[in-house]
Amino acid sequence: MERLVRGAHLKDRKGMRNAGGNPRERRRQILEIAAQMFARKGYRGTSMRDIGEKAGVLGGSLYHHIKSKDALFVELHNGALDVAADRIAQAIAGKREPWDRLEAACEALLEIQLDPDSLTLPMMNDFREVPEPIRQELIDRRDRFEDMFRAMVDELPLPASFDRSLYRNLLLSLLNAAGDWYRPGRRTPREIGRQIAAIFRHE
Amino acid sequence: MERLVRGAHLKDRKGMRNAGGNPRERRRQILEIAAQMFARKGYRGTSMRDIGEKAGVLGGSLYHHIKSKDALFVELHNGALDVAADRIAQAIAGKREPWDRLEAACEALLEIQLDPDSLTLPMMNDFREVPEPIRQELIDRRDRFEDMFRAMVDELPLPASFDRSLYRNLLLSLLNAAGDWYRPGRRTPREIGRQIAAIFRHE
DNA sequence: CCTACCGATCGGTAGG
DNA sequence: CCTACCGATCGGTAGG
């Protein structure tokens, strides 16, 4: 008697299945897919079945790799901030001049925010969509990330009339919102970062 | 036999019911409730049953006043932009100097965006949450609104190195995102508007 | 404006 | 990783 290949009865196999059979690599694949979908459609707009479809499995099967949708989102969010913090630290490591450091940080964060094929995608916003129980955790984590910018802004020789706390909030919300209007092919993330730094440069 | 008062069996009556019995006023009440909830919880995060609860009725009963959730959101969105456009036009009407006009427009838009008790609330963002069929309509409507700012930015004596299109996008995303981090009691919307105008002032 | 319901979809699970 | 399902919730409707 013939034995059917598992999953061969699915209507189509557009999703990327696990080729190598390495479960760690498979998990990474799933996280990357989920990150992209969360970034594009938001937390509520992305169902586990959606993620499963892109991964080539049914939604329920994802729970072999993750504990819950909440936990998946938290892991992605924290991982994204870790990577972002590292890359920003690298970008400003060689620079001493406060404005240079700010510009380098803006460029680095934008390159992350605007890269459509990264596990490190913009999900630092839209906390309204996320369930209450994990919301505060995400906010606290982001606040720690933003302390990097607090330190950089404090070093700037700003005019006395500027409120540094407000200045920092404005700069960060600008960087975080960039993904909402950015369209690839026109300005590069670097160019945008430089323009932002130029606009925010006052002494 | 005694006759029960309608709705008296509901667990609680926290919701505001229609007191006067005026159906037009009742509809306005419902729109205002919906606007607040959409602004706070997003489109997907607000169910018709949620809105009904705050209005003191069941979700299904709202359909006597509106056609669909989509139509409700579109009406609120377009109405908000109408009011915002009017108030900005008023704010800049008396001013001639380009920087003064920009500052006045920023203040006016922020006062609208940051007012928590207004039918004119910030729902110009988060189009990811909205169903595909109405998304493009909302975007087109917002683009028309943003033309006001395009005109104002074109009048500014900016340095030649500045990209005016990028500059406008950055300014608008800053104004639109203000509701995400704003907390009442510290800076007023006017003060924030003035600081934004100061940061964006370069010649 | 309520009762009572529809079909669809959600996150998640037991068992294989 | 699938089958087959759970309870909950969604937008919306018919009829009163």
UniProtKB/TrEMBL annotation, chains A, B:
InterPro entries: Homeodomain-like_sf, HTH-type_TetR-like_transc_reg, HTH_TetR, KstR2_TetR_C, Tet_transcr_reg_TetR-rel_C_sf. Residues 47-66 bind DNA. The keyword Protein biosynthesis does not apply. SUPFAM superfamilies: Homeodomain-like, Tetracyclin repressor-like, C-terminal domain. GO terms for molecular function: DNA-binding transcription factor activity; transcription cis-regulatory region binding. Residues 1-15 have a biased composition (Basic and acidic residues). The keyword Electron transport does not apply. Pfam families: TetR_C_24, TetR_N. Residues 1-25 are annotated as: Disordered. PROSITE patterns: HTH_TETR_2. Residues 24-84 form the HTH tetR-type domain. This is TetR-family transcriptional regulator.
